[in-house]
Amino acid sequence: MRHIVRYLDGPMIGFLMLLLMASVSVVFSASGENSDRVFSHLSNMGVALTAMLLVSHIPPQRLMQFALPIYIVGILLLLGVALFGVLVNGSRRWLELGFTRIQPSELMRLAVPMMLAWYFHYKQETLRGRDYVFAALMLVIPVAFIARQPDLGTSLLISASGFYVLFLAGLSWKVIAGAAIAAGSALPLAWHYLLHDYQRQRVLTLIDPSADPLGAGYHIIQATIAVGSGGVAGKGWMMGTQTHLDFLPERSTDFIFAVFSEEFGLIGNLFLLLLYAAIIWRGMHLAIGAPSLFGRLLSGAIILTFFTYAFVNMGMVSGILPVVGVPLPLVSYGGTSMLTVMVGFGILMSAAMHKKLVKT
């Protein structure tokens, strides 16, 4: 048993288990005491924890060998989606393989930062400005495929994960500032020519959700009512009226933070925020202790992306960011999201705990 868990970090496992326990309780309430949903959630947790354990035993040098093949496979799958993907609700995000249906964009959440971390590790002795340009191109290609599906939320989050690798690899602040100014200047063009009608509607709804309270603004209005009605101490577990009277949509997935806020209030939210902060702090500690550039870049990107997912979801539910369909990491119901996040933590623990890395 000691051999099995030797690559797991004790404090990190403790924080993650507390978060998963909170997840089980709130999913039970949000699902209306649906035992099938809870058992499915527990099953997803078991698969995700097993995957984290297995990945944590893979040495970083072996992970590096996987980076390029996984990235290439991911790009080919995204190309397959563009050419032959299944159209669902106006979006072409899924690829039918006969025996199963997959969403390749989920693979790219890890494949992109792995690829960029591998590239900078390989180039660390001769790193030049053009290498950042080439790395940015490797980031833009999958992001463009995913944005075209369209899936703006996932494309922006993968952009963030890739940017974190570029930033941690030493990208100049002048370049970052220039890119930010250029992006800001291009917003009018993006608004008119790149965003779809429903994406523009989400931004307009964020500004004034009351303009369409029973349509586009319904999600935000009901979520903010639930968050605010929790008060300081909350209404109590299983006592949320917005949740149990079916006012709150997507309450087990994207809007589960509203359920948590209503039932546990400000005190519960502070506990949840402290728990996320503890995970991020421990993750950065492990990232800094990684013995190679590949490990530090990939681990840092994984934990910063985890922060981004949590921030975007809470901001979305609280009405300060547009609704983009991002789950609350390790709390929302959903097997794919949980598996991706836990595999990321397995990689983080592997990079921190394996002390030797042979440069390849």
Concise account of the structure shown:
This protein is mostly helical and 360 residues long. It has helices at residues 10-30, 35-56, 60-84, 104-122, 129-147, 152-168, 173-185, 187-194, 197-207, 218-229, 241-244, 256-288, 293-318, 335-353, and strands at residues 86-88, 91-96, 101-102. The chain has a three-stranded antiparallel sheet, covered by helices on one side.
Description:
By secondary structure, the protein is mainly α. It has one domain (10-353). 69% of the residues lie in helices and 3% in strands. Strands 1-2-3 form a three-stranded antiparallel beta sheet, with helices on one face. The protein is globular.
Jot down its keywords.
360 residues; mainly alpha; three-stranded antiparallel sheet; disordered C terminus
Tally of domains: 1
Structural class: mainly alpha
Strands, total number:
3
Distance between the termini: 32 Å
Q: Evaluate the radius of gyration.
A: 21 Å
Widest beta sheet: strand line-up: 1-2-3
Q: What are the low-pLDDT stretches, counting only 5+ consecutive residues below 50? A: 356-360
Helix count, DSSP H or I runs of 4 or more residues: 14
Strand and helix order: HHHEEEHHHHHHHHHHH
Q: Biggest sheet, open or closed, and with what strands and sense?
A: 3 strands, antiparallel
Percent of residues in beta strands: under 5%
